[in-house]
Amino acid sequence: MPVYNAPDLARALVVRVAELEKAALSCGFELVEAILVDDGSEIPLDLAGISPRVTILRNDHNRGKGFSVKRGALVAKGAWVLMSDVDLSTPFSEFPRLAAEADAWMVCGSRYGRPGMPLSRRLLSRVFHLLVRLMGVAGVHDTQCGFKLFRMDVMRSVFEAQRIERFSFDVELIRRVYRAGGVVKEIPVVWHGGKRSSLRVCRDAPRMLVDLLRIWRDRA
Fold first, then answer.
1. Radius of gyration of the chain measured on its C-alpha atoms
2. Distance from C-alpha of 12 to C-alpha of 182, rounded to nearest angstrom
């Protein structure tokens, strides 16, 4: 779970780790650990004391969501890794929906068709996903939802090869899975519309487009 400048959301999330443990047990999984990756914003280390399952990793400076997810995934001990946004726009109770497709390499929660996204984000999303389809990454309507499940016996090498460190990393992972012959599933999930996001349209839209060009150029 990547965290940037949101200590209050991080604290609220840690308190609700028990909900994830309960959701996992309901579908035959066991929660091994909950890893928060602090992306250079220095969230309080005492959060780890709230739950024995919680581990906090710190990036030495702001590296981006993609870097933070990659770092957390590669140190995780579990056979599967769930990525979740810190604001829990998709609640932990939705985990069984993804777990039902856990044989896939990567299971993407989807907000496709859900209301509640601000107009600027909605417009950016439409342009972004048009470009993604033009790159040949088809079959996933919502590549950017922050609720994904990774099967680490096959995804470890995909994460190790990941180059994109910011918001377009999801597209790179999906494309690498396709090129490796793996399976990506997309599952609709409840989404409440995040009240806060580290994404800033004017700042990050150009970065996302540059990263898409890098993915296309590198044939990632």
1. 16
2. 35
- Dihedral angle over CA of 162, 126, 197, 205, nearest 10: 70
Q: Which of 8-17, 129-138, 190-199 has the lowest mean pLDDT?
A: 190-199
pLDDT tens digits for range 28-87: 999 999 999 999 988 887 887 888 899 999 999 999 999 999 999 999 999 999 999 999
Residues 6+ apart with CB under 8 A from 102: 80, 149, 151
- Helices of type H across 65-147: 65-75, 95-99, 119-134
Give the relative orientation of helices 169-179 and 201-218 as an angle to the nearest 10 degrees: 20
Alpha-carbon distance 22 to 48, whole Å? 19
Inter-residue contact 117 to 124 (CB < 8 Å): no
What tokens does 61 get? 């400076």
Measure Cα distances from 90 to 114, 142, 152, 172 in Å.
Answer: 12, 14, 22, 22
